[in-house]
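Q: Protein A?
A:
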Amino acid sequence: MKLDYRGALRDGLRHALINEPRAFLMGEDVGAYGGCFAVSLGLLEELGEHKVRDTPLSESAFVGAGIGAAMGGLRPIVEIMTVNFSLLALDQIMNNAATYLHMSGGQFPVPLVIRMTTGAGRQLAAQHSHSLEGWYAHIPGLRVVAPATVADARGMLWTALADPDPVLIFEHAALFGISDEVADELEPVDLDRAAIRRAGTDLTIVTYGSGLHRSLEAAEVLAADGISVEVIDLRTLRPLDSTTFLDSVSRTHRALVVEEGWRTGGIGAEIAAQISEEVFWDLDAPVGRLATAEVPVPYAQHLEAAALVQVDDVVAAVRATIG
């Protein structure tokens, strides 16, 4: 059957709430309103208030409640409207959810899932266009995932619910309109493995989220000129599946990292460092990096586009790396 990204998220959420008796959804406007991005639309009417719970407008409070529920044996799915609002719950996420298992000597796991919308490209200006998944990938004790395809948007939640650690799912708003064919039955996603979305021989692009689609589009353009690009979708930013991209770079001998976060201190820097540390002698060129411009994301459409990585930027960077 065919689903769009938003419908896939809803289908995965519905499947989890029905098939995991301990699971429930909580967050601002997830019930009667149907969610800020309509992902939970209709679920309150279908499943009832014990499964879909509206909360007060206090991210710290309802994330903290989710942590407590998880420690009490439930499987809460907490929705934060957009990633910038997660900063209001950063203390709960970093100092509590990520640390309790360690600080209790393994006695108190926190099997919590937090979903949030991320990314720019929608003219929502500097305060609502963040890509902060790299920040959270810095924190031990968390699993950080970023579904880039319709199938992953549908299946990641089910796998995440089974994880004993807190899982943060970053759903890119610019992908809500994409659609694809998926299996009739929901297929859980392996969160431990990156996916090779396109095989190639001349250069490896390592990316995730919205960067995957720009990279695949660029690979098509480059193929017309006889340049073969391998495109890897990380899927999980913490813990990184380093083996997949290191093996790829060992074969192609060149690498480009494409991310939507800012370049300084970003996840791309970590990937580039690992490539340089582990497969340096296989490289035929320095590792390339593309990221959002080091500015607050502009509101004006043409300025926002200029700040973000575009397909032409990826094409130019590949050409420059190949030489």
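Q: Protein B?
A:
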Amino acid sequence: MELAGILSDRRIETYKLFFAPYETIFIDEAQYIPDGGLCLKMLVDLFPDKHFLITGSSSFHIAQSASYPLTGRSVTRILYPLALVELRETLEPFEIYSQIESYLIYGMYPEILTQNGVQGKIEYLINLRNSYLLKDIFSLEQVRNSQKLQDILRLLALQIGNQVSLHEIANHVGISKNTVERYLDLFEKAFIIKKVPAFSRNLRNEVSKSAKYYFWDTGVRNAVINNFNRLELRNDVGALWENFVVMELIKKSEYTEQYAQFYFWRTYDRKELDLVVEYGGKLTAYEIKWGKQTVKSPLLWQETYGGTVEVITRERLLEVL
């Protein structure tokens, strides 16, 4: 009898038969268990002294149905691709810097970091793109038009670091703006992309109703556009670097339990900052540059919010992280 069938039976006698002998119970891919939250509540109520470890590859049913009945009795952890704050525990700085190009091109999934050859990394990412990336969206959310999803994802991949216009995407793909919004929400729940909204304190000329979208992993992003060229052959290095740095800062915030808020800042007359981090009532602004160019802090930002703007280049990466 399969685990999903055992759990879906939802009878005390069945649960006692299969689960009573174990102190720790591990359930993987819990998003595929019908009424998973109710099943888990029954288990926890029946075995209050046991430990339950519930995992899944997306937040659709884990967050929406599994956690809700266990409010106050469960802890949620999100496992992201590897972070530099983790690698620093085992690697020397020069080892990390020597791999920056690989991180930008092939990403930070554990399987990528353990692959020795370039071809193996590419094959892994292509297989991930073709077989697993949208699996939960198709199976759990009953989205049938796979080509539309792939078209939107490709458009997002080509616009990292830029404001995304939902109207433009809708017109380009040939669907409604509301459907685009729904698909973007699904991409976020599948941990493919991360939305970063605009920062505004309601100044007249601040952009407030807009967002950027970054990929949780740059290797996945490059697989979506099928571009694994070396950095010297690319015209998107600045965007890749920005995506990488933003996501590393977000991962650091999560793993150090700071839970900061992340924004970008822009005005209608094109003054802008790549990233604004709000934590503990303090604002920290960043410009993220692949090269060593000089960056001037926008006067409006200084006058309105104070403080200077930190510049994150390759040389300063580990200082910030």
